[in-house]
Every structure is written in C-alpha cells, then in structure tokens.
Design goal:
With 101 residues, this protein is an all-alpha fold. The protein is built from 4 helices and no strands. It has a domain of 70 residues. Helix 1 packs parallel to helix 3 and helix 3 packs antiparallel against helix 4.
Length: 101
C-alpha cells in the first residue's frame, strides 16, 4: 500500500469511529467516507462530528454534501484558473507554431 492509501484508510477508520460514537451504524461512516473521497475532506467531517455532535443521520449527510460541494467548487475554480492562465499565455505568446519562430 502506498502512503496515500494508508492515510486514506486511517482517516476513513477515524471517520467511521466518530460516526459510531454518535450512535450511528458504521455503514453510514463508510458511505460518507466514500463520497467525500479525500483525507482532508474526511478530516473536516470528523471535526464537524466531534464539535457539533449531530443527532440525526440527515444532518450528517447534509454536512457531507456541503463539504463535497465546497470541494467540487474549489476544484472547478482551480481548473478555470488553469484554463485562463493557458489562454492568457496563448494571447501573449501565440500558439508557438514554427511560423512564429
């Protein structure tokens, strides 16, 4: 197993334990971990569970969706910034064809 896989597995286990401590089934924790996808997002969820201590599964799922939405928006923003940087590069320097050299 790679270092990233080990980190993901440990963070997932920590998330599942946090869900179980609140009295919910481990399957809920497994599903939340799967949908969040990254250790960083799972850590955010663990913090939410530890500090807010939600009383229903709906609150847990709602927070999971909110975190996932923020992660997706951040990824989209980064992709847009990268595309914009490439576009500006083309505007400033051209396409780099041999005719321009």
């Amino acid at each position: 197993m790679t270092t990233n896989q080990i980190l993901w597995a440990r963070t997932k286990d920590e998330l599942v334990r946090s869900v179980e401590r609140l009295g919910f089934p481990a399957d809920l924790g497994e599903a939340v971990a799967k949908h969040l996808g990254s250790p960083k997002a799972m850590k955010r969820m663990i913090s939410y569970l530890d500090y807010v201590k939600p009383t229903s599964g709906e609150l847990i799922v709602d927070e999971m969706l909110a975190i996932r939405s923020e992660v997706d928006a951040w990824k989209e923003k980064k992709a847009s910034e990268e595309a914009n940087a490439r576009y500006n590069e083309i505007l400033n320097y051209g396409l780099g064809t041999e005719d321009e050299l």
